[in-house]
Amino acid sequence: MSKKVYVAGGGAAGMCAAVYAARNGADVTIVEKNTRLGKKLSVTGNGRCNLTNLDMRPEYYNKAAQGRMKNWLSLYGPEETIKFFKSLGVIVKSEDGYIYPVSGQASTVVNALINELKRLNVNVITESQVKAVKKAENEKSPYVLVTNKDKYEADAVILALGSLSGAKSTMSTGDGYYICKQLGMNLKDTYPALVGFKCEDDGTMPDAGVRAAARISFYLGDELLTSESGELQISRDGISGIPVMQASREIIKFVSEKKPVVASVDFFPEYDEEDFEALKRDMYKLRDNRTLEEFLLGFANSNINSTVLKKMKLSPAMHMKNIADSMVSCILDRYRDIRFNLKESYGYIQSQVTTGGMSLGDIGDDMSVVGFPGVYLVGELLDVDGRCGGYNLQFAWTSGSIAGTAASM
Ligand SMILES: Cc1cc2nc3c(=O)[nH]c(=O)nc-3n(C[C@H](O)[C@H](O)[C@H](O)COP(=O)(O)OP(=O)(O)OC[C@H]3O[C@@H](n4cnc5c(N)ncnc54)[C@H](O)[C@@H]3O)c2cc1C
């Protein structure tokens, strides 16, 4: 008799687990709260789905997970992921190591997984909310999966219930944390991550959105928390973009605790001190009868210029001939250290991932729950989060494949 495996949650990790369990001969059912499978997966990577990354390292994940990730990634990493998607008919391409489906459509990935589930006769129950996993008295089917509509006897249960991150339509309501706590598991504090931040409104934020290459460093008092480079986005109320999202995993706890975290932005990251001094000397030559605004016109984006002047309380109409050399030097230096005080993150709905989750201390190497043989946890429900760039989906595929295989045996 084939094993009866129930997968709670039909997102990336749940669908992957279901495919592996069914390919191994198990009788698999997915129970999904949403109207269809893979809702969040279909909006990943700006609709292009960054499946994984060829530059895969344990240190790109949270500290608590790095030791375990080393082992798990050695079992199932980017190479296995690419092979898996090829087996579903999804050809991928690399953009500097970032792996996407050639189609450029996340829907290709979702539909290929759904087609494979159909081909493997996996039963899919949608619009059904899992409420609990209970031990059954029945030796043959040791677990009961309880939903808002029914109860199902199972040999194995894979909990793939996701996190709190993502738009409301993705149903990321953190149900899994409550269900796992009922099993006596430990929950590590959760925070939104891969997210931007609102800044204190001191009247100096740009009037219109700005996108610019920058290096951004985050400080708690004098302590440097982390630095990232990339395309920074500044809007009227806050900062975002890839470097901010990457840094968010390191700073979110402090910001959430209302600690004074400051972002210092360098808009000339490619210049060393000597190059920048040379640039300044060239700029001094433009000190004729221009206004300060005219002088700065080609130095940076006009919205950045006005933010710098507002921060320094200088009028753009000032005449350059009335500004001393030392002051011009100060103004130009400011482009390497523009400071913003962080107020709060944009929250779970705007975030791509949740840091924290169910403790890995309660999980075996095959993703099974200690003390509950036959119950497995996969994906973002666990205390595993990675950098932006395909690392979070890689964990969905890694954990899903390991648990799906183990549950079917
Ligand atoms: C906008 C956005 C873009 C992203 N882009 C990328 C990217 O390009 N690359 C990358 O690596 N990562 C990306 N991520 C992160 C990635 O999508 C997640 O890490 C990944 O989807 C997690 O997979 P999961 O299966 O654990 O959770 P999910 O995909 O969230 O799946 C969980 C499923 O469980 C269901 N569910 C929840 N509660 C219940 C319940 N009680 N009963 C039944 N079902 C339930 C949900 O409806 C959902 O279908 C992105 C995230 C977001 C929000």
From TrEMBL:
Superkingdom of source: Bacteria
Q: Does the keyword Flavoprotein apply?
A: yes
Instruction: Cite the RsdA/BaiN/AoA(So)-like insert domain residue spans from the record.
Output: 191-353
Gene3D superfamilies, A to Z = FAD/NAD(P)-binding domain, HI0933 insert domain-like, Translation factors
Question: Which cofactor names does the annotation list?
Answer: FAD
UniProt keywords, alphabetically: FAD, Flavoprotein
Tell me which SUPFAM superfamilies the record gives.
FAD/NAD(P)-binding domain (SSF51905), HI0933 insert domain-like (SSF160996)
In this protein, which residues make up the domain named RsdA/BaiN/AoA(So)-like Rossmann fold-like? 4-405
Residues passing through the membrane, by range: none
PANTHER family, per this entry?
Answer: OS12G0638800 PROTEIN
The protein's name in its UniProt record: Flavoprotein HI0933 family
Record the organism. Butyrivibrio hungatei
